[in-house]
Amino acid sequence: MSKSNCLGCRAPLAQVEFLYLTKLALSSHITLAPADDVGDWVYFVSNGKKRSNLSAYILKQDSLHPSYKSFLNKHGGKALVILQGVKDLACGNSVMNLEAIENHYKSNGINIKLDPQMKVPCSIVHENQGCGAHFISFLIQAYKRALPVYLPVYLVPALIVHRQGILKRPNTILAKGLLGTARSSLFLSMYCSSAWLFKRCNIPMVALGTFPTGLALAIEKKSRRIEISLYCLARALESFVTCMADVGYLPQSEKLKRGDVVIFSMATAIIMHCYAMERDVFKSKYLNVLDWVFGVPLPPYDTTPRKKWRSSSI
Questions:
Q1: Burial annotation 68-92 (CB, 10 A radius, 16+ → b, else e)
Q2: Pick from 38, 119, 227, 299: most CB atoms within 10 A?
Q3: Distance (Å, rounded) from C-alpha 186 to C-alpha 172?
């Protein structure tokens, strides 16, 4: 199978995933659902988005945003020559860079001889280890890589959100931050480690087989699942649009170079509008940070234009 055909197979898979996620979003009425239902909805839908992102990471990295691709390359823990070998097998091609993969392992002190007729990339991905042994060793390494990522994510906001209570109960706040760091690091390391378990290697199995890796999100708190899900949704949609444009299903746009800036501006406008007039839609911790950054605005239901307009229309 040629690489162009390989791309043509991936695009319909991305289209099916996108339509499936859209159907779930429209049918769930997430903004009207109870908090527990929202957490469950996010848990299952985020599996689909994570599957889409992870399969794009293996099969078509150029569809991902450069910063997100760099993040996945770091925490995915595999060199680009290894990913290329897995991609060749998934697309039904012979692995063209066997010598480069062997040289990569040799530079790390591992002598390995790869079979040109292999159908499953275990020997490419797992070095000289078995599947279980590689999973454990990779999990430990991935956990060490994840800790520096999540330590500032928890401790810096804690210093801002709990700035008034940090001197009164420092041990409680610090322990909570460290526990969150350990929990989120375990999620990321489990997510990355599970991606390298193979039974078969083809495009449908890569797209569908990465679904169990999204189950690692169950390790996170429900409140964190929503944040991670929304972030992955943005990356999945970006990858989807890029794939559709590459195979000709969508026109290549050269006029809108910085669409991300436009989206950011619109999102910021919505946030600031709600901050001024619909403060009750924010979680308390987010509202606390916004108040600290912008200053507490006038009481929204007494003096804002929204309140005046409602009063005049009665």
A1: bbeebbebbbbbebbbbbbbbbbbe
A2: 38
A3: 21
Question: Does residue 95 register a pLDDT over 80?
Answer: yes
Yes or no: say if 228 and 46 are a contact pair by the CB < 8 Å rule: yes
CA distance 34 to 37: 5
Mean of pLDDT over the chain: 75
Q: Which residues contact 263 (CB under 8 A, 6 or more apart)?
A: none
Q: What does the alpha-carbon distance between residue 92 and residue 202 come to, in Å, rounded to a whole number?
A: 7
Q: What is the DSSP string of 202-251?
A: SHHHHHHHTHHHHGGGGGS-HHHHHHHHHHHHHHHHHHHHHHHHHTTSSP
Q: Which residues contact 202 (CB under 8 A, 6 or more apart)?
A: 90, 92
- Rounded to two decimals, the pTM is 0.70
Pairwise pLDDT comparison (176 vs 17), residue with the higher score:
176
Domain layout of the chain by residue ranges: 3-129+197-252, 255-303
User: What is the spatial distance between Cα 208 and Cα 213, in angstroms, rounded to a whole number?
Assistant: 10
The tens digit of pLDDT for each residue in 291-308 reads 888 876 656 555 555 556
Q: CB 186: neighbour CB atoms within 10 A?
A: 19
d(CA 98, CA 84): 10
How many angstroms separate the CA atoms of 287 and 138, rounded? 39
pLDDT in tens, 205-228: 776 666 667 778 889 888 788 888
Distance CA 94, CA 256 (A): 39
